[in-house]
């Protein structure tokens, strides 16, 4: 179940590419700036990105001084774009599921993951595997769909007035963890919902120290330029956490 490879579905792949070709995509306006704000000094560091997709972040890690970057992704199609558009001799792209991280033998100073861990069913195992891959003092920094977003079993997210303006968010089934199958570009996209406390407890049980959490929101300027972003007044779309393997 936790190995669904939806990004290799041609219809999904093309639809997702269109979303990402939009410079106003939340990835660029909200998520990536928050992710990079959590990055430690990457100078001379060995970095792993889980669910690296097109490899955009991998190139950025090199620009920030990383010595070597490994980008891992389950989707051969996403990695093909990465090889074509974001190739570097200092980046190694691996076609593998992050459910198989225990097979990696190399150690890393920093592990990033950007909007990919909500595709994984067994978060406890994932986090333990990441802990084992990190050097002492290493960081795990990730973003995921916010638990308030993954909570819903339906996709009836908002209540709107007769002018189609959002009145409030329809939070339901927050405490029921588990699989969520929905329509995003295509039918049958599988994600996993975990509560906030569950996510935090998995990280702590693995031995990580939680350093910082973010629930980023676009500026009012951005909301005014792009009114759909006004929904963030009610609910953040992303949760980001930086944890560390032991205290410095
Ligand atoms: C929303 S995209 C984000 C891509 C990239 N991190 C970025 O922010 O530009 C999620 C990525 O996670 C990958 N992914 C999903 N499940 C995975 C798994 N089990 N193992 C490795 N990668 C996975 C997908 O193939 C996809 O490339």
Write up what this structure looks like.
By secondary structure, the protein is α/β, with parallel strands linked by helices. The protein has a single domain, classed as Rossmann fold (3-Layer(aba) Sandwich). 29% of the residues lie in helices and 29% in strands. The chain has 8 helices and 11 strands. The strands form 3 sheets. Strands 3-2-1-4-5-11-10 form a 7-stranded mixed β-sheet, with helices on both faces. A two-stranded antiparallel sheet has the order 6-7. A two-stranded antiparallel ribbon has the order 8-9. Helix 5 packs parallel to helix 7. It binds S-adenosylmethionine. The site of S-adenosylmethionine has 22 residues, from helix 3 and strand 2. S-adenosylmethionine binds next to helix 3 and strand 2.
């Amino acid at each position: 179940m936790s190995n669904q490879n939806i990004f290799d579905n041609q219809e999904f792949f093309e639809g997702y590419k269109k979303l990402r070709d939009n410079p106003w995509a939340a990835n660029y306006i909200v998520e990536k700036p928050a992710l990079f704000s959590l990055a430690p000094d990457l100078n001379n560091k060995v970095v792993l990105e889980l669910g690296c997709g097109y490899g955009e972040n991998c190139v950025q890690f090199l620009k920030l001084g990383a010595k070597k970057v490994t980008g891992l992704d389950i989707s051969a199609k996403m990695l093909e774009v990465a090889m074509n558009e974001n190739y570097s001799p200092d980046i190694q792209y691996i076609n593998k599921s992050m459910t198989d991280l225990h097979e990696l033998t190399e150690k890393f100073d920093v592990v990033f993951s950007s909007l990919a861990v909500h595709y994984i069913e067994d978060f406890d195992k994932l986090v333990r595997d990441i802990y084992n891959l990190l050097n002492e003092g290493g960081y795990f920094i990730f973003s995921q769909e916010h638990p308030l977003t993954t909570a819903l079993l339906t996709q009836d997210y908002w209540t709107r007035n007769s002018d189609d303006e959002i009145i409030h968010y329809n939070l339901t089934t927050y405490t029921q963890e588990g699989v969520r199958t929905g329509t995003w570009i295509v039918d049958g996209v599988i994600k996993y919902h975990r509560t906030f406390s569950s996510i935090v407890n998995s990280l702590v049980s693995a031995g990580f120290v939680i350093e910082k959490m973010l629930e980023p929101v676009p500026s009012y300027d951005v909301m005014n330029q792009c009114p759909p972003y006004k929904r963030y007044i009610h609910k953040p779309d992303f949760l980001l956490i930086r944890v560390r393997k032991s205290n410095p």
